[in-house]
C-alpha cells in the first residue's frame, strides 16, 4: 500500500492541491482570488518535483497492477505539468475578477489529474474513473466562460461526453465479461477466446469513448464549438491536455490486445479519417478559433497514426512521446497568441499584425509552421518519424496520407500568416487594433512556447533516447 502511494505521489499532490485551492478560494475575498493561482502554481511545481523523483526510480505498477508507472507515464506527467504552468499563467488576466476565478484553477488541476489517470491506467475500471474525473472539470471550464456562446458549447460538450462515457463503460463491461477481469493483462486471452463479434464490439466501444477525450472522429463535433465558445485558457486546455492522456491510453489498450493486424488497422483508419476531416474542415474556416479547433482534430489523426505503428515498430513509442510533447508546446503557443490579441477574431482582422507586433507574429509563424511540421521544430522531427514508422509497420497508405494531409494543411495556416503580413487596409483590421490590449504576459508566453518548440526539435535525439 505504501509503495503504491509513493508511486502515485505526483497525482496525489495534484489532488490534494486542488482540494486546498478550493478551500482557500472559499475563504479568500473575491478581489484577492489571484493568490489561489499562486498556490496552484506552487502545487504544480511540487507535482513536477515528485515527477522527477519518480523518473529516477525503476518502472513499477501501483494498486494491484491497475496503474503503470513507467517512462511513458513519467514523460506524460512532465508534459502535463509544464502545460499546467503555461495555462495558469495564461489564465492570469483572463479570469481575474470572475466570481468563480478560484474554481477555474481547481478545475485545471482536477482535469489534469484525471488525464494522468486515463494515461497511466492498465485496468478498465480505473480507466472509467479517470475518464469521469477528466471530463467533469472540462464541462465546468467551458461553461464558466463569459462568452454568450459558452452555454451552447458546454451543453454540446456535455452531451457528447456523457454519451461517450456510457459507450466507454458499455465497452468495458463487454470486455470484462469476455476476459473475466478488468485488467489489461487479461484482455489478450479473453478477446482471443471470445467470439469475434463480441471482442470487436467491446474494443470498438472503448475506443469510441477514448476518442471523445482525444477529440478525434467520430466523437469530434464538440471541439470547434468548445474552442470558439470558451475562454482562451479553457480552449488551450481542452485542445492540449486531454488529448495527451487519451492517446497514451489508446496506445496502452492496443498493446494489451491480441497481436492481430485488425486492431492497428482500425486505429489507422480512425487516424486517416481524423486528419482528413480536420484539415478539410479547417480550409473553410474564417474564425481563427474554429480554425485551430479543426486543426487539433487533424493533429490527433497524426498522433493516432503513430499509435497504429506501436505494436509492430519499437521506435514508434518514443516517436509518439516526442510528438505529444512537441504538439503540446506548439499548440499552447498558438493560443497564447490569441490571448495576446483578443480583438482579432477572424483571419482578415490579423492584417497588419506583423507591423504592429512583429515578435508576436513571429511566434505565431513558428507555431503555425510548427504544426505543419517545418524544420527545425519538434513536430517536424515527429512527423518525419511518423511517416517512417507507419511505412515500416506495413501501413504505407497511411504514411502517404500523413504526407498529403501535411501539405494540405499548409493552405489554411499560410492563409492566416499571409493576413498577418498584409497591410491593415480593412475596417475589420482597424477595429481589431482598436480593441486589442497590450497583452504582454500572453505575448511572452507565446514567444517562450514557440522557442521551446524549436529547442525541443533541436534536442529531439536525446529526448527520443530518454523516451526509449
From TrEMBL:
A Pfam family hit: Proton_antipo_M
Domain NADH:quinone oxidoreductase/Mrp antiporter transmembrane: 121-408
Transmembrane segments: 6-24, 36-55, 75-92, 104-120, 126-146, 158-179, 191-212, 232-251, 263-284, 291-313, 319-338, 359-382, 394-414, 443-467
EC number per UniProt: 7.1.1.-
Class in the EC hierarchy, top level: translocase
Residue ranges the record marks as coiled coil: none
This protein's UniProt keywords: Cell membrane, Membrane, NAD, Quinone, Translocase, Transmembrane, Transmembrane helix, Transport
Membrane topology reported for the UniProt record: Multi-pass membrane protein
Main location class: membrane
Superkingdom field: Bacteria
GO MF: NADH dehydrogenase (quinone) (non-electrogenic) activity; NADH dehydrogenase (ubiquinone) activity; quinone binding
Record localization: Cell membrane; Endomembrane system; Membrane
Gene Ontology biological-process annotations: ATP synthesis coupled electron transport
Annotated catalysed reactions: a quinone + NADH + 5 H(+)(in) = a quinol + NAD(+) + 4 H(+)(out)
One CC-aspect GO term: plasma membrane
Assembly behavior: NDH-1 is composed of 14 different subunits. Subunits NuoA, H, J, K, L, M, N constitute the membrane sector of the complex.
Function: NDH-1 shuttles electrons from NADH, via FMN and iron-sulfur (Fe-S) centers, to quinones in the respiratory chain. The immediate electron acceptor for the enzyme in this species is believed to be a menaquinone. Couples the redox reaction to proton translocation (for every two electrons transferred, four hydrogen ions are translocated across the cytoplasmic membrane), and thus conserves the redox energy in a proton gradient.
Similarity section: Belongs to the complex I subunit 2 family.
Protein name: NADH-quinone oxidoreductase subunit N
Source organism: Nocardioides marinisabuli
Gene name for this UniProt entry: nuoN
